[in-house]
Amino acid sequence: MIDDYLIAYKTYYKLLKTDVTLYKAKPEILKELGLEVTSQNSQDGYLICDNCKGYYKLQPGESPYDFSDKCECGGKLIYKK
């Protein structure tokens, strides 16, 4: 099925054992495609550093995928609801 493929760099990639529900399209991409941007695309929660324990509360319209997965201290940012 075509649903099992991803196109990147003009190449088709087959997704194997990947939970694609973890990945959400950015609102800008949805707008370019003429699709409706809903509050479902934004998420409430926090990005928390596993090293320094610093945190950032996501603002309305922001998604954890809008940010890098690295903290300024070098630690890894983890999304928590």
Figure out the total of helices.
1
* Derived structural class: mainly beta
Q: What average pLDDT do the residues reach?
A: 75
Topology as a string of helices (H) and strands (E): EEHEEE
Write the SSE topology.
Elements: E1 5-8, E2 11-14, H1 27-32, E3 46-49, E4 55-57, E5 77-80
Antiparallel strand pairs: 1-2, 3-4, 3-5
Question: In words, what does this structure look like?
Answer:
With 81 residues, this protein is mainly β. The chain has one domain. The chain has one helix and five strands; from the N terminus they run E-E-H-E-E-E. The strands form two sheets. The chain has a three-stranded antiparallel sheet with strand order 4-3-5, with no helix packed on it. A two-stranded antiparallel ribbon has the order 1-2. Strand 1 and strand 2 form a beta hairpin. The radius of gyration is 15 Å and the shape is extended. The model has no long low-confidence stretch (mean pLDDT 75).
